[in-house]
Amino acid sequence: MNDFTDLENQLEELRPLRPSPKLVERIERALSEAASISTAGIVVPRRRIRLDWLALGAGLVTAALLLIFAQLRSERPQNMSQRIASAASTSVAPVRNDSSSFVPEGLTRVVYDTRDEGVHFPSGSEQPVRRVRSHTRETLRWRNPDTGALLRVSYPAEEVSLIPVSGQ
Amino acid sequence: MENVGIHENWQTCFSQLAPGLLVFARQWVRSAADAEDVVQEAFVKFWRRNHNIDNRPLLYATVRSTALDFLRRNTRRARRESDAVAETAQVVEPQFDTADDAQLALAVAINDLPGEQREVLVMKIWNELTFAEIAQVLGISQNTAASRYRYALAALKKNLPAQ
């Protein structure tokens, strides 16, 4: 590195051009424009703290809503899920139909969407109810035991359940 | 990393750093005016984000990325300018206050250095960054930064006319 000491000294003697006075003015203008929006320097951290509090508040509200929602869901009567489960596995016992060669083989009901539409107060009811809307697809099957032919009918269905909500 | 400086401080900081920043920015742009545009944009961006002015690697990285953005934005214009320059004699606006022919030759030799060596040299000599800081700006190892610096000095020494 010593070989380059003279060269480094020469380089250091080389002075870069000074910026034009207009550059300082332009930066001053740009910074004052920024200051008019958010003021300079010190204010920014304070704004960040305020945003943090806002986020914290929003988080707490969300958590509270989730807790309330979870509690309400746990209060739902068990019978609905039982009803859906039993419906989903409903099967009709094969019955020989003399008038037709097709024998009913089964009914399948698949619940593919259940939407909780919240608490409602139906007219004439003293108790609030929770409205749950289910979309299902029901499939009926018949089979011809002689030929083995299968007849299948499938259709969409919608079911609205009103579940009483206990006040506690 | 918060800048605790007040608004008035920027002039003090800027007046110390400006000449070096301009030489640094000039590597990617053709004129002093463009270099000033780049430095202005980068410095305002840096200052508005309240970065600590002591974080010089970040400041130089901001200038570098602003200059590269500037280049991309002005590709067409730059091409036109380079064509115009190619048609006439190679005219390069001076970056340094040259007192004599020796300094002028040195300035020309710096201009002819490969870009990756020149940027290390510029940061080291006129901006007084350490190799660790230069490495941070460029995203390279400290050893690579030091090597590029030595190569730059060697190239300058070789290319300068004997005195």
Describe this structure in words.
Chain A is an alpha+beta fold and 168 residues long. Chain A has helices at residues 5-13, 21-38, 43-74, 78-88, and strands at 15-16, 103-120, 129-143, 150-164. In chain A, a hairpin with an 8-residue loop joins strand 2 (103-120) and strand 3. The longest helix of chain A has 32 residues, at 43-74. Chain A is elongated and about 110 Å long. Chain B has 163 residues and is an all-alpha fold. Chain B contains 8 helices and 1 strand, in the order H-H-H-H-E-H-H-H-H. Chain B has helices at 9-26, 32-48, 56-73, 75-87, 101-111, 115-125, 131-138, 142-159; one strand spanning 96-97. Chain B is globular. Chain A binds chain B through residues 1, 3-4, 7-8, 10-20, 23-24, 26-28, 30-31, 34-35, 40-42, 44-45, and chain B through 2-7, 10-11, 14-15, 18-20, 22-23, 32, 36, 39-40, 43-44, 47-48, 50, 94-98, 102-103, 106-107, 110, 121, 125-126, 150, 153-154, 156-157, 160.
Question: Notable features of this structure?
Answer:
heterodimer; A: 168 residues; alpha+beta; 3-stranded antiparallel β-sheet; 42% helix; elongated; B: 163 residues; mainly alpha; 70% helix
Question: How do the strands and helices of this protein lay out in sequence?
Answer:
The complex is a heterodimer of chains A (168) and B (163).
Chain A: H1 5-13, E1 15-16, H2 21-38, H3 43-74, H4 78-88, E2 103-120, E3 129-143, E4 150-164
Antiparallel strand pairs in A: 2-3, 3-4
Chain B: H1 9-26, H2 32-48, H3 56-73, H4 75-87, E1 96-97, H5 101-111, H6 115-125, H7 131-138, H8 142-159
Helix pairs in contact in B: 1-2, 2-3, 3-7, 6-8, 7-8
